[in-house]
Design brief:
The chain has about 180 residues and is an alpha+beta fold. The chain contains six helices and eight strands; from the N terminus they run βαββαβαβαββαβα. Helix 3 packs across helix 6.
């Protein structure tokens, strides 16, 4: 029997900006690619699945091509392993900095940022938001509701010249708890 690996895909542009798709349809598209035990978590494009295929970049490319064909628009895909997601959840990006009454968002990126790109992210710092970069993730500490900030996923994408997708850290923690039960 071939050992299966559990992965989590974070899809950009799902159920936002007029692009609406039912999670049942997302599951069907993933299953059509041969992925097993496909589950979705909330309607914002979080997909848990298993496969013996061990190359996340190849899987991202396959998923993006399938969804582009099925939906008619680009859906950037960011895959993380179970271990990577556990490390993201366990990471404390802002140390002892006051985070009470604040939210932490995590932006998933396709690659690790260069020092120049990391500095671009840090330049977004305001009284409302702090930023930290680690690996292929950007952590955003938002001291107000996100809509009160000038920062957004679109602003990040434009500054970096690459796709990204944002999730609230609470959602990431819930996904991590769910995927460890599977």
């Amino acid at each position: 029997m071939i050992p299966m690996q559990r992965y989590i895909a974070f899809l950009r542009a799902i159920n936002v900006g007029g692009h609406t798709i039912k999670m049942d349809a997302v599951r069907v598209h993933f299953e059509s690619l041969g992925f097993l035990n496909v589950e979705t978590f909330i309607a914002s494009g979080n997909v848990l699945f298993e496969t013996p295929d061990g190359d996340p970049q190849e899987m991202e490319t396959k998923i993006e091509a399938c969804l582009r064909s099925a939906l008619g628009y680009e859906v950037s895909t960011f895959i993380r392993t179970r271990a990577e997601l556990a490390a993201i959840v366990g990471y404390v990006p802002f140390g002892s900095m006051e985070v009470e009454d604040a939210s932490i968002y995590i932006a998933f990126l396709p690659v690790t940022l260069s020092e120049a790109s990391t500095q671009k992210v840090k330049a977004f710092r305001t009284s409302i938001g702090e930023f930290h970069v680690k690996g292929r993730e950007v952590y955003w500490l938002c001291r107000k509701i996100s809509s009160e900030s000038t920062f957004s996923g679109a602003v990040l994408e434009k500054a970096l010249g690459m796709p990204a997708t944002l999730r609230n850290s609470t959602t990431i923690k819930k996904i991590t708890a769910k995927q460890t039960q599977s």
